[in-house]
Amino acid sequence: MKLRFLGKNSTVGDCPTLYATDQDTYLVQGWRIFANDLLMQLEITEGETAVEVPTELFEHLTEDGLPVGEIRRVEDPIMILTPGGTFVMQGREVTDPEALAEMEIPDYETVIEVSKAAITALLEEPREAHLQRQAQSAL
To answer: 3-8 and 25-32 as β-strands: parallel, antiparallel, unpaired?
Structure first.
């Protein structure tokens, strides 16, 4: 798997990062989920895991040619929008040794792989909001 760095949201000690791959996927490096109350809200299947990332991380999608990096929907693979303004995302845990060797991953972080189609769908405005706006402008 070949990676292309799109961007990171770094503060001291924190480094959620976004990569594009040559397999029509994104790799999302984020904080491991340790809170039991949060884990109990998720249905994580074998081979998957969840990470927490700042919402601003997806602004880097513009580096992959997308016109906007603003997430407009909270649905699979984004499972939760936290009160602290972060997303909890779920995806296939990355185990590819070559890909992992290209990243700096602290012990408290991990990496998930999510399809580009799933992420770009989150950038689209929900149909209900679009229809509601059309109805308001017709009034």
So the answer is: unpaired
* Separation CA 65–CA 85 (nearest Å): 25
Q: What is the pLDDT along the chain (139 residues), one digit of tens a residue?
A: 999 999 998 765 568 999 999 999 999 999 998 876 777 778 888 999 999 999 999 999 999 998 877 888 888 898 888 888 899 999 999 999 999 999 989 999 999 999 999 999 888 877 654 434 333 343 4
Please name which of 6, 15, 1 lies closest in space to residue 66, comparing C-alpha atoms. 6
Q: What is the C-alpha separation between 121 and 129, in angstroms, rounded?
A: 15
- Residues near 86 by Cβ (< 8 Å), separated by ≥ 6? 52, 53, 54, 55
End-to-end CA distance of the chain: 52
